[in-house]
Task: structure prediction
Amino acid sequence: MNDIEVSFLNLTLKRIAVIMFFFIIAAAYVNAVGIGQYSNEKETLYQPASVKVYKFYLFDSSKIHVSLEGDLAAYATINDSNPDGPARNVEVTITFPEYLEPGVHILYLVATQATGPNAAMGGLASVRTGIRVFSLYPYKHPIFNAVSANDMNINEKGNIGLSITNYGEEMITAASGTITVYDEYNKTIAVLPTDTKSVGPYESQSLNAVLDASMYNLTAGIYTAVGNLTYDDIDMNYTQAAQFIVGELNVNIVDSTKELIVNATNKYHVTLESDWAGDIDNVYARITTPNGDMIKTPNIDLIKPGNGRKAAGQLEAYIETKGLSVGNYSFGITIYYDGQSVTKTLDVNIIDGIPPKIDRPPIVSTDTALMIIGGLIIALVVAYFLIFRKSFSKTTGNNDSRANSSNTNKSNNKAVSDNDIRPPTL
Result:
């Protein structure tokens, strides 16, 4: 390797070392602590004078302090082999009393990063996890938990359920419900009876009904299901509600940028919603501006955040207004989605003003940049070994030549036996 190659390699390795150094320093000052539980049990039923043991593991810090909180802390102890130590396992033992007042009781295990040299810079991290303990009432005690309603599309069927839990010691013989469906204008669309089920002590049941969108000629929109429960001929006189969507495959423009600055590059947004009961991938638009430009937006996905909420997303483009005068204009926009398209006309007002500062998105995304950096590092390592191997080959090649010359001279003087040690044939 010549001096230039050595200098370049040393400089590259130094830069890599500096980058890794800053990553390590940054990681050292990020305070964190975590709790994991070996079992998935987050709830349990109280049994008089019983004992429960839970195992946890602590991680993400070199010094972790643990403590107990909640109304059950007086009945619990921590078995910790290394208090305020690094990542480790701990046990929490709950010794229940002979009597515990009916209702819900909670025990929290709290892990806090113990004071260390870095605490002043980042603060002390803390996290907790809880165990809920139910002490049953000495009679029937139903709780109406929630209404659940699945989104559906036009002409489909969807399930609507009422969740009930019995926190009493007596069996509920017959629990049932009634579900009333309302449209966006609060008009009653359907009244659906649920099935009937018994609910034992500390048991939960889902009481279900089926809504047939085609039977009620439901159109696309947001609907509300309101549920009421009865148990053993007793009306709970308590309702809960949930929204759901009856959807169709369409995309609607609900908002767009209304004003642009003249003679400038402007960021332009178009907000979309869909009535579809699921996500819609790879949605994009082509925008025709008044000065004749045709702009294609990047692809986006319209994501449903949950039942009863529409899939939504925002398209983004950059509009040049150079050559246009102040005034009102119309943009033509075509939205493309799932093999379909819809064309709309959007109004925009071009006004005088200070040109906006536009931070255009980088040509290379962050993920791509990281991949490129990783590839460069790998390429540098490979180049290093190739250069080193090349230099090494030159050196060993000269030695091999001298060795072969020597062997040739020796072979002229005497015969070579099979027992001679020979270099491998390349």
Q: What stands out?
A: The two ends are 24 Å apart (CA to CA). Residues 20-30, 117-123, 362-366, 399-426 have pLDDT under 50 and may be disordered. Helices lie at 3-28, 119-122, 366-413. The domain at 252-351 is CATH 2.60.40.10 (Immunoglobulin-like).
